[in-house]
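A reminder from the course coordinator: this example appears on the midterm review sheet, so study it carefully.

Given structure:
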C-alpha cells in the first residue's frame, strides 16, 4: 500500500466562506499515482469545516442561512469571555460561534478512490468552509491505496 500526503491552501476574505476544493483534491489524487483506495481531506483548524454537497449558489445561501440560524454570531458563547479564561491561551477573537459551527460540520471527509478518480456523483463537491475569516488556511489531503 502507498500513502501520499499534500497540503493545499485557501485564503478567505469574509467571515464565513465556502471553497469548492474538488478540483484541487483531484489534482492531489492525480499526483499521488494511486488508482484504488481512500482519500482523506482534513482541516487542522478548530474554526473550519469540511463537507461534501452540491455546489449550487442558491443552495450555498441556504447553507449559510441554516448555519447562522443554528449558531448565531450574536449569541453568548462562554469561549468569548476572555477574562474568565486564565489557564488557556486565546488569540483574542470572539469566535465561539466559529468553533460551534466547526463542531457541527466536522473537520474531515473520506472519499473512496476508484480508477484514479474520486468516487463521487457529478452533483457532489468537496467544500472547505471558513467560519472565522479572513485567514490563510492549509488543508491536508492524504491518499492511501494502490
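Designed residues:
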Amino acid at each position: 500500500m502507498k500513502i501520499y500526503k499534500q497540503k493545499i491552501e485557501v485564503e478567505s476574505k469574509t467571515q464565513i466562506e465556502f471553497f469548492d476544493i474538488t478540483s484541487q483534491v483531484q489534482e492531489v489524487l492525480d499526483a499521488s499515482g494511486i488508482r484504488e483506495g481512500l482519500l482523506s481531506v482534513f482541516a487542522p483548524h478548530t474554526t473550519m469545516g469540511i463537507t461534501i454537497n452540491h455546489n449550487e449558489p442558491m443552495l450555498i445561501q441556504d447553507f449559510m442561512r441554516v448555519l447562522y440560524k443554528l449558531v448565531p454570531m450574536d449569541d453568548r458563547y462562554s469561549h468569548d469571555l476572555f477574562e474568565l479564561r486564565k489557564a488557556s491561551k486565546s488569540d483574542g477573537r470572539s469566535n465561539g460561534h466559529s468553533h460551534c459551527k466547526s463542531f457541527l460540520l466536522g473537520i474531515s471527509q473520506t472519499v473512496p478512490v476508484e480508477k484514479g478518480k474520486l468516487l463521487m456523483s457529478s452533483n457532489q463537491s468537496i467544500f472547505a468552509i471558513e467560519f472565522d475569516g479572513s485567514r490563510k488556511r492549509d488543508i491536508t489531503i492524504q491518499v492511501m491505496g494502490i
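The domain at 2-145 is CATH 2.60.120.460 (Jelly Rolls). The chain has a mean pLDDT of 93.
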